[in-house]
Amino acid sequence: MKFIGIIPARYASTRFPGKPLAMLGGRTVIQRVYEQVSGALGEAYVATDDERILRAVRQFGGRAVMTRADHRSGTDRIEEAAEQLQTDADVIINVQGDEPFVQRSQLETVKSLFADPEAQICTLGKPFESMEAVMNPNSPKIVCDVRGYALYFSRSPIPYVRGREQQEWLQAFPYLKHIGLYAYRREVLREITRLPQSPLELAESLEQLRWLQHGYRIRVGLTDVETVGIDTPADLSRAEALLGAMEAER
Length: 250
Known about the structure:
By secondary structure, this protein is α/β, with parallel strands linked by helices.
């Protein structure tokens, strides 16, 4: 199978405008994401709606595609880029443009899931390490069936553990954190970007619920690697500290 990575990157972020071009350890955030993805997959593109990001990617030798500014989601932006590229890839992997620490092992895990012919969309989950983290609505939870397919994603701590104090829930059930990296079979990507928003998606503000509610199957792989996304300037400061610690260990 042929895999390519497409990295959606907008300039106009509400909480951190221009974050793809923010500097992290002497390189832009988008350059670090691109290098991680292209190093693991061989072929990668940035899909952006801003000339500044397009120029920056091309200046460091990366490949970029200019897309419309009115997309509802990164998934829609990736579909437009894939159409422009006329790619012959079997699977397209979506890595967010604010995930500079995405690891080769995570991308390899996602790729391996497509050995299952029933897998239409694949993503990752990581076991939670504290009940405090489970309770965070900004960390979506995944509940899977016995074969590793997602049954539901929620911002709430699901399932409810009956008969136990809440601080004991994590000892009673292996809560799984959703890592927002997606991969889609090419034809499935084309189909899901034509779907209307669903009631569950609108209720939880989670795009993947649209796909589940319309009957698509999402295979979940496991990772023990924590991703560090950059949503705010404070996140960038934490990323700088993490990068420094990683480089000190080498």
